[in-house]
Amino acid sequence: MEMRMIRNGLVCFVLLGFLLGVGCTQWIEEPVIPYVQPSTVDEYERVLNGSYPGVYHTLLTSLLADVLTLDDTGGQQLSPLVRNAYLWGDADDPQQVGASISFSYPWLQYYGIIYKANYVISEVDTSENVLERSRALSLIAEAHLIRAHCYLYLGMLYAETYDPSTALVHLGVPLVTEPLDASTDTYKRDKLVDLYDQIEKDILLGIRFLRDEHVSHKKFRFTRASAYALASRYYLYKSHNYVNAVDEPIIRASEILSPSDDDPVYFLKKVVEYATEGLALNSSAKDMKRLDTRGISDPRQFARDYFDASNPEVLLSSLSLNFYTIFRQGFNLNGLRAEMAEKFPGDARTELFQQSGALSQAYLSIKTDNGYSGFAVPLYKVEELYYNRAEAMTRLGLLYSAFEDLNHVSSLKRRTPEGTLFSVLDYQGQDEILDLIFDLRKLEFYMEGHRWIDLKRFHRPRIAHTFRGEVFVLDSLDVRYILPIPKREVSLGAIQTNPSNNLVDDIGAEL
Questions:
Q1: 3-state SS record for 105-151
Q2: Fewer CB within 10 Å, N or C, the chain?
Q3: What are the pLDDT digits (tens) for 132-176?
């Protein structure tokens, strides 16, 4: 398949690497060559500064997951894209292929970022003096981390979750590791194992050569702490749903120290290792005990402050998201608010909801800006390091260590003396503890792009959405847990599709 992943906007990619606009997404038939070639490390650094991924999947996956409730009693008219995403249907309206709620949008945006990362990797000169060589290597390492981040999300959205027993059979996504010549290069989907191997190579190279002293605007670019967070996330996703099958609460040391590198135990050990490395650099989870959420007069300002890059728990931030599109069409968080308040009484995070108006019964999140403008959303934050490590240790059988992490985070969020702290003695085995972590991740990361992926890798539970009085269900074995390959990609050549490609047209036709 001809992957014409070079944009009309690439002419913007000139003179010190001017930032490419996310609206420049129209495919073209021939490659565009930048007419001013960056040549110095400073110029390539400016190129890379404009090449950071946003949270491109977050709006779409928030609709797909189980955090939003639709109140359609008021006669609101859902847009076709919002309706079809909410009902796991065909969101690929050909006239709106760039819309942020289409199934195509993450694919287009992440591959656009990969192109720019590939450009920097292939073009930066590392033959300068010692100082410039160190900067150049660090910049190339940063580009590898960006590429790894993008491919990890492409894999989690458009492919099966990783399982060592099936990774040689299941398809990943097309691997592109050099700047494309759209007129000559052809690409097809690689095996899932190849995709994950490439992500791992990029992460390890990035960690090896990235130097924080060469990174400016550290909350908006990869640092070693956020690189470790990426590594812990990667190995957690790669470990799939493995749970150590032992009776005793502590796994034998030999099982941790000498596994093979295709063993989930090895992956989980790496989660612990990299999360620990990241926490050694920054362990500042948000302390919410004294955060007053009552009587907030300006929830939009509160939202901007909540995830501000100056907050120590934010490791890597993006400025590219708003929720106005979906909340103005009748969606709310009433169900999530009630569920979390029941499960975690006294936790300040259960208070991060506010009625959308004086007469409204709809609760919205005050940690997200629900207006027109975009706002900061963290790609990585310290809390994830604790939860990743706690999940990995639970799967390994290190239950008491897992609860140390869970209670450390919970102690910072506990509003009242009755607020939730956890005891391993209250849970009957690892599955119940993993359910607890699953719920805590939902409470911590809702509307941040994690939930759909967590649902997919946690046994794909049944989800039900109601629309116009009818209940629509996504069962655990439903092929729509894997997003369809974008129609435009399929129309350009013989790329292998996903089973969901064969269903979404029928579902769209029924509505």
A1: HHHHHHHHHHHHHHHHHHHCCCCCCHHHHHHHHHHHHHHHHHHHHHH
A2: C
A3: 889 999 999 999 999 999 999 999 999 999 998 899 999 999 999
Cα 122 to Cα 2, 108, 116, 187, 511: the distances in Å are 21, 21, 10, 19, 47
Which two structure tokens, joined as six digits, stand for 95? 């006239």
Contact 206, 228 (CB under 8 A): no
393/16 Cα distance (integer angstroms) = 45
Nearest one of 379, 408, 394 to 437, comparing CA atoms:
394
Contacts of 132 (CB under 8 A, 6+ apart): 41
> HEC profile for 145-162?
HHHHHHHHHHHHHHCCCC
Asked whether the beta carbons of 208 and 240 are under 8 A apart, the reply is: no
Q: What are phi and psi of 391, to 5 degrees?
A: -65, -45
Query: 389 is written with which tokens?
Result: 């490590």
Q: Write the DSSP assignment of 193-238 as a string of letters.
A: HHHHHHHHHHHHHHHHH--GGG-SSGGGS--HHHHHHHHHHHHHHH
- d(CA 222, CA 216) in angstroms, rounded, equals 10
Encoding tokens for residue 23? 């609206």
**Strand duo 314-321 + 375-381: pairing:** antiparallel
> How far is the C-alpha of 489 from the C-alpha of 88, rounded, in Å?
20
Q: Which of 232, 447, 436, 454 is nearest to 344 (CA)?
A: 436
Contact 367, 353 (CB under 8 A): no
For residue 467, give the nearest of 33, 82, 53, 55 by alpha carbon: 82
Question: SS3 of 191, please?
Answer: strand
- 3 state SS of 285: coil
Give the C-alpha separation, 52 to 373, whole Å: 19
Residues 383-420 have pLDDT tens digits of 999 999 999 999 999 999 999 999 999 999 998 877 77
Output the six-digit token pair for 314. Answer: 């934010």
| Total residues belonging to the chain | 511
Nearest-angstrom CA–CA distance, 241 and 461: 13
pTM of the model: 0.89
| Other CB atoms within 10 A of residue 418 CB | 9
Cβ atoms of residues 353 and 55 within 8 Å = no
Q: Rounded to an integer, what distance in angstroms lies between the CA atom of residue 257 and that of residue 376?
A: 40
User: Pairing mode, if any, of strands 353-355 and 363-365?
Assistant: antiparallel
